[in-house]
Amino acid sequence: MSPGNFKFFLPRLISYGVQFVLIGGGAGIAHGLARATYDVDIVYARADDNLDRIVAALDGINLYYRGAPPGLPFQFDRSMLRAGLNFTLTSSEGDIDLLGEVAGGGTWENLQSSIETIRFCDQDINIVTLPRLIQLKRAAGRPKDFETIAELEILLQEQKS
Q: What is the pTM of this model?
């Protein structure tokens, strides 16, 4: 994990009142996974007031599409968030993926029954439960996720015993 990314993004999103849930590698680490991850993956509520809070929280950090050639026009605002759904972004503070919908989990609203709050990076953070994280990783179907799924399943078995 790149602690700087998490220690910057998570407290900032919380302080602006952004409705989000942490998924991906960050949620895995919060559940005890021993892996590195370099981006913060969140599923966010798509209500306009929440989009405004996201824009305010991420203001001033030079956001840009990750992997895009330099110089492309980019304006991070509510209309851009409203027009799209999922954004893989880089910034002066690290990488963040803003996901309006995620395979195997749907929207922020769909994930509400699969959230737990834990202390992570000195903040109370909403993360997906371990069983739901495994489901999300399985649905993503990426080769790198299969190894992670095996480790997450071991953690789940340890929790049950």
A: 0.92
